[in-house]
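[SOLVED] Need 3D model of a two-part complex

Original post:
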Amino acid sequence: MQFFLEVLIGGLLSGVMYSFVALGFVLIYKASGVFNFAQGAMVFFAALTFVGILELGVPFWLALVLAFGAMVILGIATERIVLRPLVNQPPIALFMATIGLTFFIEGLAQAMWGASVRGLDLGIQDEPIEWILQATDIGVSKFDLFAAGVAAVLVTALALFFQYTRIGRALRAVADDHQAALSIGIPLQTIWRIVWAVAGFVALVAGLIWGARNGVSFSLTFTALKALPVLILGGFTSVPGAIVGGLIIGSTEKLAEVYLGGYVGGGTDSWFPYVMALAFLLVRPEGLFGEKHIDRV
Amino acid sequence: MLYREAGQFKASYGADQQIFPIRQDRIGIMIVLAIAFIAVPMLASEYWLKGILIQFLVFSCAALGLNILTGYAGQLSLGSAAFMAVGAFASYNFMLRIDGMPLLVAFVLGGLAAAFVGILFGLPSLRIKGFYLAVATLAAQFFIVWLLTKVSWFSNDSSSGVITAQEMVIFGYKFVTPESKYLLVLSVVTALALMAKNMVRGSVGRAWMAVRDMDVAAEVIGIRIMHTKLLAFAVSSFYCGVAGALYAYAYLGTVEPEGFNLDLSFKILFMIIIGGVGSISGAFLGPPSSSCCRFSWM
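Solution:
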């Protein structure tokens, strides 16, 4: 039982890490209907930029601001160069454009900062918390708990931003209906730029957390593939869905690897989340929290 | 367009329904086929045949398959490389385990195995649509590659999961020279392309396009959605499976499951986007651009 709980908690907390990446997808999909495959590359770019700036001897907070600035510039450039000429194109064309963007951003990040693997230290150790270990004999990583805390703050901040600010209202209006939002005078392109900048910020946070966990290397781009099942499970358009989806995927993935992996030779984590998400989709075709789509002839 | 069909009157239903109803198209296809079958093997160097043309034809075949599914039936799929893997490994096992298995039959059986797997992974398409489906097909991509790596029976207990394709022999003739391999692949791909062209012009193709354009409307006018979608998955996977078998037998010789990764799926998707979604000739226009770029970014 104790072992089960430890695996479960570890899974839930690693699920939070997937949610970070999924969150970036959701923000962009909600506001512009673009399935941004480049989110993983953006995570990589953000983490590499931050570490690169840090290596130049810049203090931590300034590096954070500069990396955020770089993400904003990247987001605005993407909106201007890639998305604006493709307005009103079929979704698949936009999707392919973001796959192309993935290759470009990966190349750009490595051209700017080099391809070597670097470590990233946020000052929080990846070790079990003493008093929980003593009280219940369950190891809960300090770092994972910190990541979960960051996620909670981030989601709360985003929810408040969406709910109570002028820009947030405009974002929701655009997400609801582009045309209607345009007709009441909401500047679509400004909104898109803001969304990409916010997604860049989320990518930066995800990059820092993932980078501190696994090192800043090219494998960060694969976080996107981890986030996709989270995304379809939670629904493309739902911020809480990204979090709940992350928790479900993270916990079941770890449990499956521990309890089933032994029978089938391990390595189940590459496909299990997808099969899991698929099972949920068969019951709820638009994800747990996705908007129900009504077809009209 | 460079030419028009003005002035070409059809006097019979047969003439009206043929695969290439425009005379210039018929002549053009004849010329292209003549060049491909006669001039290219005589003129092209070994490097061109082995390195570029065979690869181009194999990817055209896979692109054809994906184009049927994505371009005609409107179901976005990111798992085409996995279906290629099924085709390659199934053909290999049919050749290995059944004595005297003819090569072309093994290719067809490999394609049919891929079609069967395609139907299985196409089942979710009855419930889910669009990008949800695209991500769901990733399940096929990861699961199949994992399964082929883990179950060593598929690769005849080779330790690394690598399979080496058997010799290609048809009626005692061994396909060893690049020219003969090229002609074999070309014949198979030509036959499949004409079949595809034939399919999309008939009721099956029209049903696919109706489902793509609006599935609710298609259902209302009496098209069986389940039947149509699953058929699209089956046919598409069949083409991908044959392409995978050709990829293993005629192009690479040795393949491993990891070779059929997500990048390859994306590559095939790029090909149909560049060549043209929803066109048979597009499947042949996409691969050249992609294989030429290969050297720069792969």
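Edit: The interface with chain B takes residues 35, 91-93, 95-96, 99, 103, 225, 228-229, 231-232, 236, 264-265, 267-268, 270-271, 274-275, 277-278, 281-282, 285-287, 293, 295-297 of chain A (CB under 8 Å).
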